[in-house]
Structure formats: C-alpha cells, structure tokens
Amino acid sequence: MTSTAPRGRQPGRVRWWTYLLLCAATAACLFPLYWMFIVATTDTATATKMPPEIVPGGNFFHLVGLVLETVPFVQSLLNSLVVATAIGVGQAVLCALAGFAFAKLRFRGRNALFVIVVLTMTVPTQLSVIPQYMIMSELGWVDTLQALIVPGLASAFGIFWMRQHISATISDELMQAARIDGASTGQVFWRIAFPIVRPAAFVLGLFGFVTAWNDFLWPFIVLKSPERYTAQIAIKALQNSYDVDLGLAMSGSFLATIPLVVLFVLVGRRMVAGILEGAFKG
C-alpha cells in the first residue's frame, strides 16, 4: 500500500507558515487588550497623539486610585459577579431542563411551542426593554439586582442549544431502560441526562456569564443607585457629560476585563472541549 503524502513531508506535520498565521491571529486578538492597558497608564493627550505610544506609562496605579475614588468600583465588580454567576448557573440548569422537555418528552403543542421559542430569537432585544421595565416596576424590582438576574435566567438560544444537544446525545432506548428500572422523569434528567450533557451546559453557562458581565443597556435603564451599579455602568459613570478622560475610562475598563481573562485562563480548555464535543456529537 503506497502513501499519498507528498515526498519529503511527514504526515500530520504542521508547516512553518501555519505557526506564523496563528501567531499573527493571536497578536491581533491580544492587541486591543494591550492598547487598553497602554491608555490606562497614560493621559488623554498621550493616548491621542500621533504616532501613538506603544510603551506603557507610569500612571496606572494613580488612575486606578482615581477610579476607586470616583465610583464604588469594587462593589460594582461584586455586583457583576453575583449577577453573572446567577445567570450563568440559571441558564445552564433551566435551559437544560427545557431542552430535555422539548427533546425527549411528549406533550400537546410541543413542536408549536418550540417554534415560538426559536422565533423569539428574531426579536431585537431593544423591543423588550419597555414591557420588561413595566414588569419590573409592577414587581417593585427597579434598582435591584434581581431585575437583572430573573430576566436572564433562561434564553431562547440556550433552550435551542440544549434541545439539539440532548437530541443528539441521549437515545430513547436509554430513557426507556431507565423507566423500566422505575426511574421517574426527574430522576432520568438529573441522574442520566444532565450528567451526559454537562459539558454543553457548562459552555452555555459560560456564555451566559460573559454576556451578563458585558451587558450595558438593561442595567443602565433599571439601576439608579451607585451601590448597585454593575461594572459596565460604573465605567460609564467615570465619564462626565462634557469631557472623557480616556486614561480614567480605560483604567476602569481594564479592571473590569481582568476577571474575564482570569476566567478564560482557568476554564478555557474545558470550554473549548465542551464546544468541540457538541460539534462532533451534533
């Protein structure tokens, strides 16, 4: 049997230009973060001059001190952590429950209801702001963190994601065997289905966490008190109506980005593995 690989090239060997392209792509992705740090160590005049500075300045800790004096930034980071964690965990669990129901349970109107859920993804988020605010006002939740958490505990995309993953990974025969052994629907989900789809639910939870952490529009509308600001609203509060201190704003932005960088370093490999597992099984 003859090999079809070109002569002089080992099978599976990566060429040098592949590494060059990967390094270039990595540099392009990291440059905005590096430029943010450069501006966070200088003033507005230095940040806007041409040619631009490529070496960090020495004002970072001074600007960080100004950030902490101007707004309760540490409390804002904690608020963002609480909101993002609750939404991430909620989406991982609730969307998995809904996806399991749509994928494996038989009930009247299942397909029509799933179509409605999918169609809600076509509705712009801005259209739901007014009715959502009216609901929060009736509940007395304006200027509270639960006004941010409760609307984000489930998403149409998350339900669709988990429904497709459960359909592809959990066979009907496995569920029938569990029911023959006397397992209820809840036991089938928690003891069989959820452990199998846990990587996909983990990835969905991470997506929900990052989305909630970076959300600006809804927190900006519903939050009024500085002690309840999230990180993104605290960054907006660093800018006045007439002038923008780029160094101050970028210092706050850099501080708000650090938790996401740490999160990716800690769970990045598991996140990629969960995405690839869903891609191969779906």
From TrEMBL:
Q: Which UniProt keywords apply?
A: Cell membrane, Membrane, Transmembrane, Transmembrane helix, Transport
Q: Which SUPFAM superfamilies match?
A: MetI-like (SSF161098)
Q: Which GO terms describe its biological process?
A: transmembrane transport
One Pfam entry name: BPD_transp_1
An example of a Gene Ontology cellular component annotation for this protein is: plasma membrane
Subcellular location(s) per record: Cell membrane
Q: Does the keyword Metal-binding apply?
A: no
Q: Which family does it belong to?
A: Belongs to the binding-protein-dependent transport system permease family.
Tell me what this protein is called. Answer: Carbohydrate ABC transporter membrane protein 2 (CUT1 family)
